[in-house]
């Protein structure tokens, strides 16, 4: 009877109950109906235990670092640097949009922050140069999904915590897939620029001017180097790296660039605190949910069902990608990873699929879901920033989604794309 908490949870989502309450209510009701009152106590005790974790402290720190960088005007310097490199190309501002997202990903790790920060700046600029507003909003939303793929990544920290994986291994495994998504989007822009005669954003910058733009962006671009370098060198843990990122963002904002004011800090911390609270509550509820998943033997039953279809790992990966893509249309990446990771991860580990490889497949697929109709979160953020309707942006984003789906299947069936760097650095055998 306990297994029915999964359909009940889906019903709660369909009627609009917030994910946090659905994660607790569905298993709680089924445990009560089954007379397992002692397990109900365990369920709600794990809500706190799930949040009381040192590794999870990285999430609020990275979110605070992203807010500090954004408030301190770092976004503008990244855009100027990107324009110095690519503004002279046909479709230059669209290329600048994608490159800025790739650079911003190393600072914030958030698709929503990317869409709101870069969109408010680049969408009006692209419209002024002759791009349609729907195209500008679409490329902003499509490129923003690079944020949670290139490290640091909040959803990878969550996956690592829930599934017991190495954060450093996941961060390294996300580097090449994130770059592939970016270069793939640029390739699609090149095709569309030649077909529709997109404008050139600016003249070709001299090497001296590019050097000046690089100097302005030097300190912001040093952030991911400090984070990843410190983790890989064993100087600090991912959680300590997040704290270092906050200290570094404060230092360059207040004393080096002097673009951040002390009076702005309470507002920055409030926004970061609210966002972090939402994520941590979801993680706590998901750890309680995971307890009931174990009690219900759902992973074993799902494994039997999947293996009854086929035992070919490649075919199963194809089917799971389709499942994840559909899930990503309706559920945000974080909750989807928290719910499905403990169910699907052990199944594919048993089939011989490397756990880090499967983690990247899942994280990238569900991250792309953030830009997928009908419920993709960044579509709504892009709509709010641009003033365009979500349905209009959803149609314009389809060519870019096709590129991102192609990248998902590429990293699925060519494991070396994501696994080479972690293996070379010794984080994966």
Brief summary of the model shown:
The protein has 429 residues and is mostly helical.
Features:
429 residues; mainly alpha; globular; 22 helices
Give a written overview of the molecule.
There is one protein chain. The protein is an all-alpha fold and 429 residues long. The chain has one domain (2-424). The chain is 77% helix and 0% strand. Helix 9 packs across helix 17 (333-350) and helix 12 packs antiparallel against helix 13. It is globular and about 70 Å long. The two termini are 41 Å apart.
Number of strands: 0
Strand-and-helix sequence, N→C? HHHHHHHHHHHHHHHHHHHHHH
Structural class: mainly alpha
Q: Could you name the ranges where pLDDT drops below 50 across 5 or more consecutive residues?
A: none
- Radius of gyration (CA) equals 22 Å
Count of folded domains: 1
> How does the overall form come out from the CA principal axes?
globular
Number of helices: 22
Mean pLDDT, rounded to whole units? 84
Helix percent band: over 70%
What oligomeric assembly is this protein in?
Answer: single chain
Distance between the termini: 41 Å
Strand content: under 5%
The biggest sheet amounts to: none
Topology:
Layout: H1 5-14, H2 19-33, H3 37-51, H4 58-71, H5 74-86, H6 92-105, H7 111-128, H8 133-144, H9 154-163, H10 167-173, H11 175-196, H12 207-232, H13 238-256, H14 265-296, H15 298-309, H16 313-330, H17 333-350, H18 355-368, H19 377-386, H20 390-396, H21 398-413, H22 416-424
């Amino acid at each position: 009877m306990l297994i029915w908490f999964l359909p009940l949870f889906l019903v709660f989502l369909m009627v609009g109950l917030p994910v946090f309450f659905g994660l607790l209510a569905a298993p709680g009701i089924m445990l009560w109906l089954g007379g397992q009152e002692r397990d109900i106590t365990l369920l709600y005790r794990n809500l706190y235990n799930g949040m009381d974790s040192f590794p999870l402290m990285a999430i609020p720190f990275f979110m605070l670092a992203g807010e500090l960088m954004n408030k301190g005007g770092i976004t503008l310097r990244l855009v100027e640097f990107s324009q110095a490199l690519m503004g002279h190309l046909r479709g230059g501002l669209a290329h600048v949009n994608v490159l800025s997202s790739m650079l911003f990903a190393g600072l914030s790790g958030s698709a929503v922050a990317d869409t709101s920060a870069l969109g408010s700046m680049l969408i009006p600029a692209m419209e002024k140069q002759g791009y349609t507003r729907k195209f500008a909003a679409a490329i902003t939303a499509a490129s923003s999904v690079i944020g949670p793929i290139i490290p640091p990544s909040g959803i990878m920290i969550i996956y690592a915590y829930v599934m017991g994986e190495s954060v450093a291994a996941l961060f390294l495994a996300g580097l090449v897939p994130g770059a592939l998504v970016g270069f793939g989007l640029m390739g699609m822009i090149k095709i569309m620029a030649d077909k529709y005669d997109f404008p050139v954003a600016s003249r070709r910058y001299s090497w001296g001017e590019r050097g000046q733009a690089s100097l302005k962006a030097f300190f912001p671009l040093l952030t991911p180097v400090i984070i990843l370098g410190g983790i890989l060198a064993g100087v600090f843990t991912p959680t300590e790296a997040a704290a270092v990122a906050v200290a570094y963002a404060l230092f360059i904002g207040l004393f080096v660039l002097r673009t951040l004011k002390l009076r702005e800090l309470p507002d920055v911390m409030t926004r970061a605190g609210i966002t972090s609270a939402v994520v941590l509550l979801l993680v706590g509820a998901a750890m309680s949910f995971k307890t009931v998943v174990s009690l219900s033997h759902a992973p074993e039953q799902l494994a039997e069902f999947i293996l009854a279809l086929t035992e070919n790992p490649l075919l199963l990966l194809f089917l799971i990608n389709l499942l994840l893509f559909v899930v990503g249309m309706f559920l945000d990446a974080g909750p989807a990873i928290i719910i499905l990771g403990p169910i699907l991860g052990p199944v594919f580990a048993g089939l011989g699929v490397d756990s880090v490889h499967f983690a990247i497949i899942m994280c990238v697929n569900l991250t792309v879901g953030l830009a997928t109709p009908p419920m993709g979160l960044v579509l709504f953020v892009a709509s709010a920033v641009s003033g365009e309707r979500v349905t209009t942006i959803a149609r314009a984003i389809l060519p870019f989604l096709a590129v991102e789906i192609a990248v998902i299947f590429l990293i699925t069936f060519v494991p070396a794309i994501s696994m080479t760097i972690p293996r070379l650095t010794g984080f994966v055998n």
